[in-house]
Amino acid sequence: MIVPRPQLNFWERLYLPAIWNGFKVTLRHFFRKKVTMQYPEERWVVPPGYRGAPYLVQDPTGRTKCVSCQLCEFVCPPKAIRIVPPGPAVDPAAGNVEKRPREFEIDMLRCIFCGLCEEVCPEEAIFLLQDYSLTGTRREEMIYDLKKLLALGGVHQDKIRKWERKAREAEAQEVFPVGRT
Question: What does the buried/exposed string (b/e) look like for 36-66 if buried means 16 or more CB atoms within 10 Å of the residue's CB?
């Protein structure tokens, strides 16, 4: 297939119109208000719906809400989340919580901030906070472990206190055993 190419006229061969059009764009932007942000002094206002970095949260009693179901690890597209569930003996100091992870790591260099981990979490233990300035000098600093994730995530004031209700039910069964006469 042969594509016909039109011949350039004299002005098009000189490139002067293209240079003039580029100069007009430069002049138009030269006299406008500058939009450059001076970053450390000026902060970006995060728009609603912004998906930032994922963090773990604690319940009001200070326990981690994660029950290491590993759904977030399975759904993570870049495989940035790594969870090591507890062994066969569940920690008795955890209260009435089913189980909490022995290790929980998120590699922030691999995380794409897609929000799938937050959507799939049945316990609402992962939240995407409006954090856009993640810095580190080494790769190891960008792998957030359980302690760092909980410290950055903070306490989530939950209206449904599932574990406290289960603890009250367990105490009530101990006091008033059902099925015994």
Answer: eeeeeeeeeeeeeeeebbbbbbbbeeebbbb
User: Could you read off the pLDDT of 95-131 as tens digits, one per residue?
Assistant: 545 678 899 999 999 999 999 999 999 988 999 988 8
Question: At residue 172, what is the residue type?
Answer: A
Domain boundaries along the sequence of the chain: 54-162
pTM: 0.65
At position 23, the amino acid (one-letter code) is F
CATH topology of domain 54-162: Alpha-Beta Plaits (3.30.70)
Residues ≥6 apart with Cβ < 8 Å to 15: none
Evaluate whether 118 touches 156 at the Cβ level (below 8 Å): no
Q: CA distances (Å), 145 to each of 56, 81, 108, in order?
A: 10, 10, 11
